[in-house]
Design goal:
heterodimer, A: mainly alpha, 2 helices, B: mainly alpha, Ferritin, 10 helices, about 0% strand, globular
């Protein structure tokens, strides 16, 4: 998933600007646009409290799973 | 027949090349970053189409011709693009009106070429129509946005439409080679495209609250190599590198 910001006067223009600005290198299969006034984002200064605790719970990380042979479109992780 | 086919394909390429060159002039000068990128994207699509047509022309001509020879080393009279496409960018309204008027034509033309008995043209059309469908959507929405926008934007786009309208008749007046190539099932008949173009253009103009100008006077010439004084300046820019450093490669 790619996220980015842009300026636009209306939803159609936002969709097209997003297409032209962010999908030039074949990243695009679907585009969702949301007006910034409707977005609620986590505060950068709260990042430690929000996300660091997950670092300590390595048993939850997806890194240790073996990918079954039948799964074609996923690369094995570095640590597996 | 070979001679007419070359003329026909070369004209398709010239339309794409000259429009692409004009759009490229916007690069770095767009009103905002997003629209600058959008127009440059369209320019690149268009130049890509020109390359495909010119590669085919070079193949048809033989004699070790390359796409670069076709694109860069002809005289002004040998370019047969529509007069509409050599018109100046002027401002955002002019650029988008020019784009819109041509996109609608180009879309229906490519749709026809999907049925071409010539497999190369058919394959080029299959790729180009996806791009042009998006260009048409983009320019149509801008027509509506500007036409049905503020008093100033309405006035600007109506003025551009009035000024550029005299170049629309040329799209639908076939040349001898177009007639022959259409009869053979290779090319499209531009007279058959006209009602489709009218329908779609009228619809968008109505939604944009714009007045369709009268068809009283039309200018012709580009398709036969008779260009406006603007063409020399375009070619000076376009051909400079190949004329100064013959055979230059990227």
């Amino acid at each position: 998933m790619h996220a980015g910001s842009l300026h636009a006067a209306d939803p159609q223009m936002a969709m097209e600007n997003a297409r032209d600005v962010y999908t030039r290198r074949m990243e695009g299969v679907s585009i969702w646009v949301v007006e910034s006034q409707h977005m609620h984002a986590s505060k950068p200064e709260e990042s430690e409290a929000m996300f660091d605790p997950a670092d300590d719970k390595i048993y939850r990380h997806p890194t240790f799973y073996k990918i079954p042979d039948d799964v074609k479109h996923m690369k094995p992780c570095r640590n597996s | 027949m070979q001679k007419q086919l070359i003329k026909y394909v070369q004209r398709l390429g010239d339309n794409a090349l000259i429009l692409g060159q004009r759009l490229g002039e916007w690069c770095g000068h767009g009103p905002v970053l997003e629209q600058d990128i959008a127009l440059t994207n369209i320019a690149l699509d268009t130049l890509g189409q020109a390359r495909l047509y010119f590669q085919y022309v070079a193949e048809l001509k033989g004699e070790n011709q390359t796409e670069d020879d076709v694109a860069f080393l002809r005289e002004e009279r040998e370019y047969t693009n529509l007069l509409l496409l050599e018109q100046k960018n002027k401002d955002w309204a002019y650029t988008l009106v020019r784009q819109f008027l041509f996109d609608v034509f180009s879309f229906h033309n490519l749709k026809g070429l999907l049925e071409s008995s010539d497999s190369t043209l058919k394959a080029i059309a299959a790729r180009a129509i996806k791009e042009v469908k998006y260009h048409k959507k983009f320019s149509s929405e801008w027509m509506i946005r500007l036409g049905d926008g503020t008093d100033v934007s309405h006035k600007k786009v109506q003025t551009a439409l009035n000024d550029l309208w005299i170049f629309t008749g040329e799209m639908f007046k076939p040349t001898e080679d177009e007639d022959l190539i259409a009869k053979m099932g290779i090319g499209t008949s531009c007279e058959e495209i006209q009602p489709l173009w009218d329908l779609e253009v009228n619809e968008i103009l109505a939604e944009a609250t714009l007045q369709r100008p009268d068809d009283t006077f039309m200018r012709y010439g580009g398709k036969k190599g008779q260009h406006s004084e603007l063409m020399g300046f375009i070619l000076a820019d376009l051909q400079y590198m190949q004329r100064t450093y013959p055979g230059l490669q990227w």
